Amino acid sequence: MDRTVATQVVALIVVLAALVRWIPGDAPEEDPLGRGAPLAALQLDAYLRELGQDDDLAPRAFLRWSRRDEAQLYRRYWHRRLRDARSLYERWLEDPDLFVQFKGVPRNEQWLLMYDIYPVPMTGVPLEEGSTEDDPTEPGAEVIESRLMRAEDIQRELRKQARDATGEGGR
Amino acid sequence: MTALAVALVVCLLVGVLVDRALLGDPGLGPIERFGRGLALGFGVVGALSMALDVAGVGVSAVSLGVAVLVVVGLLARPAATVPARVAPHADEDRRRLLGLPANVQAMHAALWLLALSGVAMAVWSGWVRPTFQFDAVTRWMFKAKALHYEGTLLGPISHDPYYGLTHQRYPPLVSHVANLPALVSGTYDDRIGSAIFPWFAVALVAVVYGAVRRRCGALSGAFAAAWIGTLPLLAYKFTSPAGAGAASAMADVPLGMFVAAASLAAIDAVDGRRARGHLEAALLVGFAALTKNEGLPFVAGIGLAFLVAAPRARLRRALGVAGVGGAVYLALWGLLSTGLPVTDEHYLGRLHGDAVTSGLGRLGIIFPDLGAELADFRSWNLTWLAVIALLLLGGRRILRPAPRLLAVVLAVQVGAYVFAYVVTSWTSPAAEIIHEGEDPLPLLIKLTLGRLLMHIAPVAIVLGLLVSPLTAGREQPRSC
Predict the structure, then answer these.
(1) B473 and chain A: CB distance < 8 Å anywhere?
(2) Contact B239/A8, CB-based, under 8 Å?
(3) pLDDT per residue as tens digits for the range B185-233
(4) Which of B146, B217, B331, B358 is the most exposed place for a label (fewest CB within 10 A)?
(5) How much is the average pLDDT of B50-79?
(6) Helix (H/G/I), strand (E/B), else coil: B296
(7) Which pLDDT score, from 0 to 100, does residue A113 have?
(8) DSSP conformation letters of B98-129
(9) Is residue B191, in this structure, part of any structural domain at all?
(10) By C-alpha distance, which of B131, B225, B208 is closest to B174?
(11) In sequence order, what are the residues at sequence separation of 6 or more whose Cβ sits closer than 8 angstroms to the Cβ of residue B33?
(12) What is the pLDDT of residues A24-47, one digit of tens each?
């Protein structure tokens, strides 16, 4: 086999290897805290909606979801978070004394919220460091509690909706 | 879009001027010049922004704009006087390519199409997606946002423990680069800021193409471009846990680009292909160290590589390149960062006997996981298996100066990463849930190993191609 043919063979292997992206996934990405991976899909979803695309095709494909109703549930909470962050910033520009207090927010979610809310002043430690929703509110603080549902909460709500739909919700 | 385009053009202009005026070897192909210009431009403009911050001058469109104009003014005349000559080997490559059979020329075009499709996917994804990777949001983009609103990274964002989530000691070059579009537009939008990251991958592919083309011919160069441009982790595998791809706004692809560009400049220097390859390598080593902590072992690694591979004046070259690179790092971040809060990822603080001896048992976790990652088809396709095969086929060619230099760089980086895994005290809420009462290292490896390998994958691919029997026969006499 001369060098040209060998190069073509190797190049063909690289082309085939590049096709790996179309191999179907075997499972959703792991999300140990039940709130990490969906954030990516929801951010994408929020941006696409801003562009005027009003369906959840992209985030469902992104997370390899087949269930449209799950995506709708995540979306609801995600939009609220972005809307709140934007509103907070506008209010802080008008009232520089405004600040945010986190109560009982899990660490990873609080860190993402801190990025969204910055430069509005913030206080409050994450859930893992002892913060709870029952902490006393500091005077003048805008309280933020956990906004995202855990995966198990989503499943619970979906089951409840399914029961309601079949008339079993009253049992 | 306009802000991003302006930021890219400014970086490219500065980089091309630095390349022509200081490094004095414009006789490269247009694609390589474009890649080197972009790489140097990101480094120089980011470093200028950092220098303003260190000097106590607020980073704003005006202050950075004036600094860039001064640099452009200083470099414009020397750059204009450099003759725009074309390197003889570039001409030879062109003639050789045009003289090849039609099917080989078609293969060249197909490989380039593949390379472009890969980086285009990264560029497109970086453009349409907001920042989605957790670490990218909480480290690099958080600092970029703080830099935009505060005009400095030396305020509370770096000193207040409340913002410890940003890893305050991490060197912030990419955050300064991500702030450039916001400086142009006047408003912070993380979608635009993060969209600049995939362009590091564009620069990487162009630089590697040029270097391999000059050594092994145009077809090999296109092959290297296609190989790197379609690496799943670089081009299109965005989801966690790896999430280190070019569109993720993580600093791993930028570091991989600086490591590759510096290493390729270094092998040009040891082969005598470029008169100022040492200076270029030194600058890029400094930028690598300013990009991520993992760039620090590269400073030592490139010095050791010159000691092992340079044909003469080894100590002077090693001290020169590593010294200049280290000085750039110390002046713009290293000295400053010693006063910042320490995190559990402060590996230099774990350089003591107890941490090492107590962690040696982790090697039984690290090496099997490393093997599994290298064979992970979804993240790397056949890359690492192919590199290992090419090295085996190459035999003694690895002992030539250029491959030897690259091999030492790879060995030092891998050694540093293994060492970090041995001594780390890292943990997280997720680790405490998953590995309650057990060593959290497996989760850390799962989250980070793909990113770490991204730093060295381009160098490993070039090394494989340089020693490969397929491409070694096409080398110019000076190359290896």
Answers:
(1) yes
(2) no
(3) 998 887 788 899 999 999 999 999 999 988 888 888 999 999 999 998 8
(4) B358
(5) 94
(6) helix
(7) 86
(8) HTS-HHHHHHHHHHHHHHHHHHHHHHHHHHHS
(9) yes
(10) B131
(11) B16, B19, B26, B210
(12) 444 444 433 333 445 555 666 666
Query: How many whole angstroms from its chain centre is CA B436?
Result: 36
Cis peptide before B403 (omega within 30 of 0): no
- Name beta bridge partners: A99: A141
What token pair was written down for A170? 């009253």
Strands A141-144 and A122-123: unpaired
**Rounded to a whole number, what is the distance in Å from the CA of A32 to chain B's nearest CA?**
6
B48: tokens are 């200028």
Which residues from chain A sit within 8 angstroms of residue B129, using beta carbons? 43-44, 47
Chain Cα centroid distance, residue B187: 28
How sure is the predictor about A110, in pLDDT bands with cuts at 50, 70 and 90? confident
Residues on chain A touching B107 (C-beta within 8 angstroms): 7-8, 11
Compute CA A171 distance to the chain's CA centroid, rounded to the nearest angstrom. Answer: 33
* A144: helix, strand or coil: strand
Q: Is residue B279 part of a domain?
A: yes
Distances (CA, A) of B63 to B14, B58, B218: 16, 7, 43
CA A142, chain centre distance (Å) = 22
Domain count, chain B: 1
Residue with tokens 């725009």: B84
Quote the tokens at residue A8.
């073509």
Full domain range(s) for residue B466: 104-472
Kindly list the distances between the CA atom of residue B230 and the CA atoms of A123, B190, B270, in Å, as whole numbers in the listed order. Answer: 44, 26, 30
- The answer to whether residue B250 sits within a structural domain is yes
pTM: 0.86
Q: Do the Cβ atoms of A62 and B137 come within 8 Å?
A: no
DSSP codes of every residue in B318-377: HHHHHHHHHHHHIIIIIHHHTTSPP-TT-GGGG-SHHHHHHHGGGHHHHHHHHHHHHT-H
Could you tell me if residue B55 is inside a domain? no
